[in-house]
Amino acid sequence: MDLKSGYPFWAIKNGLIQAFPQLQQDLRCEVLVIGGGITGALIADELARNGGHEVVVIEQRDIGWGSTAASTAMLQFEIDTPMVELARQYGQDNAAAAYLACARAIDQINVLCQPLGEVDFQPLASLYYASSRRDGRHLREEYALRQRYRIQQQWLEPDEILQRYGFAAPGAILSAKAARVDPYRLTYRLFSRLASAGVGIYDRTCASQLRPHGQGMEVTTSNGARITCNQVVLATGYQAQQWLQQPVARNRSSYAMVTDPIDPDQLGFLRHTMLWETARPYLYMRSTGDNRLLIGGEDDALDIPARRDARVQRKAQKLLKKVQRLLPSLPMQTTFSWAGTFAETADGLPFFGAHRQWGPRVLFAMAYGGNGITYSMTGAELLRAAIEGRSHRLSELYGFARLD
Predict the structure, then answer these.
(1) What is the pLDDT of residues 199-256, one digit of tens each?
(2) How far is CA 195 from CA 53, 56, 202, in A?
(3) Among 212, 206, 209, 207, which Cα is nearest to 358's?
(4) Which of 30, 130, 143, 231 could form a disulfide with 170 if both were Cys (CB 3.0 to 4.6 A apart)?
């Protein structure tokens, strides 16, 4: 599956950081993680380092070369689906649990990144602004619900937004809990540490068949190697849907670009604040460690790689013009632009856990939506709990049962 187009910034910036071997022989393990992107890395790290489980990881491409390389890595506790809307579907406490789990995940990722060296992790503020007057009224309602659960935030009136940020909007929520990271480098650092600890990491190794085997599972690779394990975790991103007969999400395309480095004084508040809007699809932007501006949005329903490829440059120009209208004094020049496939669930929540089609020995890690990395951090804990026979607060909310 062709997951990206153009020139994703992280892969160009970092190159191929480390080579991992291709699996050539049969082996046994306790848990097989299929997928070598950021989701697979976080899950393998949780299971092997924190849970003490014997883990093997396989990836059909080079490590991090799928959707991870195209990620814009906006780490937010705010979910694409407003908390108010989630509350209507699942109740206020469940909606709050999902939001607070993402906030906790940002803190967990911060702790995780500290000993890994330079992965461009940086705490940020998040400015979520209303794109229209009608959205402003809805955003007020969103703010009020978050206040009930003591989420740290501040409401900004139009004059405050104009004075502090230099653009006009009917209202905005300023939150303290957000961050950025280089997802590609973080993935490699995690897998490198796991490999040094004896975890088997194999790239260019494609799982072609899964079947029950005794009290566990047997996975056959495309070159004929067999992996016998107690548990399989499918962390293959948007390709995981191929293993399910039941449709659980729809694939879409998202577009992004990154600018040349901008003088820090001119970058201004964007050095420490990410910006996004209430319109759907929404415009969003955040800085990088070398003072570039990463801009994304212009999502569409296209899922045909060749047509997506052809739209990259035009979409990048649209993104650039939107930012220039919003912040006309900011000097910007596009350096690289790209597009990536992402999956969107009906409610904006992920799926983590077993599906009745496969039973309890196969666990899915579908960190779909705009919160893929924070979802994956929480999902790693949830899957570890499932493997260890423990309950987790979000197992039902993030499980497939909500489709019934």
Answers:
(1) 999 999 999 999 999 999 999 999 999 999 999 999 999 889 999 999 999 989 999 9
(2) 14, 10, 10
(3) 212
(4) 130
Q: Is 130 exposed, middle or buried (0-12, 13-18, 19+ CB in 10 A)?
A: buried
**Which H helix or E strand runs over 366?**
strand 362-366
How do residues 148-173 score in pLDDT, each as one tens digit? 999 999 999 999 999 999 999 999 99
Amino acid at site 231: Q
> What does DSSP say about strands 226-234 and 153-156: parallel, antiparallel, or unpaired?
unpaired
Instruction: Tell me which residue has tokens 């906006």.
Output: 74
Threshold 0.90, pTM exceeds: yes
For residue 179, which of 25, 286, 261, 80 has the smallest C-alpha distance? 286
Q: Number of C-alpha atoms within 13 angstroms, CB side, residue 99?
A: 30
Q: Which domains does the chain have, with CATH numbers?
A: 4-70+184-248+348-403 (3.50.50.60)
Given a contact cutoff of 8 angstroms between Cβ atoms, the answer to whether 325 and 300 are in contact is: no
